[in-house]
Fold Solute carrier family 12 member 5b.
Amino acid sequence: CNQNNKIKVTSVSRWELPLLVETQREISSHGRLDADARILSQVNLRNVKNVFMLQEEMDTSPMVSSLLSTLANYSNLPTGSKEHEEAENNEEGPRPSKKPLGTLMGVYLPCIQNIFGVILFLRMTWMVGIGGVFGSFIIVFMCCSTTMLTAISMSAIATNGVVPAGGSYYMISRSLGPEFGGAVGICFYLGTTFAGAMYILGCIEILLIYIFPQAAIFKLEGLEGAEAEIALLNNMRVYGTIVLSLMALVVFVGVKYVNKLALVFLACVIFSILAVYAGVINTAFEPPTFPVCLLGNRTLMSKGYDVCAKVIEIDNETVTTKLWSSFCDSDSLNATCDEYFTNNNVTEIQGIPGVTSGILAENLFGYYLEKGMFLEKRGLLSNVDPDSPTTNSNRYVLADITSFFTLLVGIYFPSVTGIMAGSNRSGDLRDAQKSIPIGTIAAITTTSTVYMSCVILFGACIEGVVLRDKFGEGVNGNLVIGTLAWPSPWVIVFGSFFSTCGAGLQSLTGAPRLLQAISRDGIIPFLRVFGHGKANGEPTWALLLTASICEIGIIIASLDSVAPILSMFFLMCYMFVNLACALQTLLRTPNWRPRFKFYHWALSFLGMSLCLSLMFICSWYYAIVAMGIATCIYKYIEFCGAEKEWGDGIRGISLSAARFALMRLEEGPPHTKNWRPQILVLMSMDATQNVEQPRLLSLTNQLKAGKGLTIVGTTVQGTFLSNYTDAQRADQSLRKLMETEKVKGFSQVVISSNLRDGTSHLIQVGGLGGLKHNTVMVSWPCNWKQPEYYQQFRNFIEVVRETTLASLALLVPKNISSYPSNGERFTEGHIDVWWIVHDGGMLMLLPFLLRQHKVWRKCKMRIFTVAQMDDNSIQMKKDLIMFLYHLRLDAVVEVVEMLDNDISAYTYEKTLVMEQRSQILKQMHLTKNEMEREYQHFVVKCETFRLLIWKQNLLYCNTSSIRNQVDLRRMHTAVRLNDVITKKSKEAKLVLLNMPGPPKNRVGDENYMEFLEVLTEGLNRVLLVRGGGREVITIYS
């Protein structure tokens, strides 16, 4: 397009026509189609060579030309993330374009406004007086270094793509995942909300103490100690609630006015700071007059005297002063006075001696006070009797709280927060990649310079007792920093008042929008209601919740108590910003390409360590509570929140850790102590790709006390090209069933030309590296005797052979439909183990794992073993009991003796019927229907034959009539074992048996199935177990 929005078309080939049509569609979709676009239909169809080979791809993928035109504007990302697409689709109409902001107006000044705040005006001088210049400088340097390192990390993240609304929450959640993002987002929201409470309390403190003390509802006159403190806090609560309500109403009605007044509030802050510097310069030439009266070395409250003297001369007559009346019982010179008052002189010192006075040396080190202690001047001695009780303490300026270094850190840190203001406005910036790093780092540099210089200048200009006077009680109730300002203290008073009001409004404006952004992401289900608002998108419900939480801070009513709370939340947020940058740098993800290059993972870790250290330095119990809140939110999102894939760093850590663990597993097989069933569950699907035997997964879940790997696999018959959709449907069915049965694992679907090969492929290639299955679970083919299921039992036997060859354990549950679901409970019963052949301990381990699950927990374990003729059954029982003792397994032991009886007629009959059926089925080459008819006829003949034998009690078939004597002996063993098992375990909830190996010759497959059928006949639930050829349980620790 040219400057007049006319489309200029040059010679275009017929092969480029799809590209131009796509461009026309793109232009139309953005509402920018004009009449000149019709020339697209008049394209010259020449040069038939260029892009026709990519015509099919153009139907689904955007062309480079349209892609570049849309990516040129950050506010329009049709091919970006899903969140951006959803946001655009939800827009009701085009918004008026805003003039993009530069670095100064878009980042630098908003950061300056958010960083400078109430702590600078109300607590900085007190911090210098208590902590000393040296200690305060360390605090400021530590806090400013933390925010600078965080700003470096934030700049790297913010310049690694576009940061939409949400600021730090967006950066952390997209870097560390929804769990960390949601937890830290809520913490950042709570920090911003409590910051609003802190600003409101600061506003009320300025109003009631320095501007209009007469407005106090609970009067302080005549009150002392705790009563005065309670009255002050009650005033803060009442007025704080009123101001909070008014501010919330302003934000609800007209947030645009808050934004318009932002520059006015910023101007108040800047003029106040300039007034302080002007006052410092002025002290070098003409220090202001702010006298402080001391009795001995104790600072007197200015409202307790009119003249800083005990007596004065008026017309050559000695007259007592108001100060005398405060400490004596009458105005008479002979009155009885306070002992300390009598023994010490009254002196008046200059509250602000000036920058050239040398007072810096006196204020260099800290002077920490206990609550209720007197504010005393260093270097000035007083005459005090340590044994005499303290009286008239209300006449002195006292410490209102116990102070210590860590308290100062917690109170000061909120004054360096607000560094995220620039990143929150990234959508409004002309060049966010350039403006965010420069503006943020420049703002932090400026504010840090101001703070550090203020620490030194306050210590160099103001007397120590005045610095420690938090509320200016010794200087006529003036704001201490205001006493230093030029031309008048009221510049600071009103400037700080309006700046705190503006900061409170900004907090009440920003916090609901942050909560709304978290709610609309949908990662915390119970917060979704706060994503709604008015028709114009204003977060009404979020504002209501924010005001309610802010009221908690108002009820606390103490600025010094609220400041450490929000310090915790901001420090946690900054800590995770540093962690996000460090992880992204160390993982070296391909998408990590920030334009800001002056970062390093070591700086990020240093910033993270500083944040964590400051959390516990400020208040270890607040830190534990904040981390507990974040942990609870993290676990809630993990278990109940929406699953989001944002390409976060935690997923990258998981991949790296998984790769490392897989490589370690390759070093060798696991030790017996670490062996646990890694189960491959072979499922069968019906014609509609639904699972046929869901109880297999119920049993799998009940076995997962071992916490091993689970792979649920199935085979789809066909070719990959033709049956891929069926495979996807089968995979969805498996995943849905795994979720229902609460089986944690993986699903795997193989497409193969036949089911036999597909099952073999699953057994061979399931798992990855050293994390492979060591156990296969497959259901017993129930209808194997019916001719139409002939191939099914053949596949089953092949699975047995393959697992044996691969040294894999095999679990075959029979009558799987009768197994309990995960919701059932057995209140009593037994799990019987028939231990005939040692299989590495699988038969011992499986009942133990089952009994860890609530379904089988109440069942008792019984172990039966079989003694032959030459075995000592008594000694066997003793040895088995000792073996179980060493294995730490609780079970009842019983040894069953099987005598070498003669082969019964029933055994001969079962063997003969088995062989005859097998022979007939092999010799008859009939159709399916004919084979079924012959089979039914054969069954009737066999039943008649069996009845004839039993009625006449004759043995028509002898040993010579059976061709295979091995089959006869096997059948004899199966019948005898079944008879013993049925007698002992008929009522057992579950019977575990050794599963015999398959015949080496495939000719006897049918006989093998018949043996297993006879062995388990008459038992409700049977789990056939075949070991993998290695020990899975050990007596050693």
Summary: The chain has 34 helices and 15 strands. The chain has a mean pLDDT of 79. The longest strand covers residues 710-717. The first helix runs from residue 17 to 29.
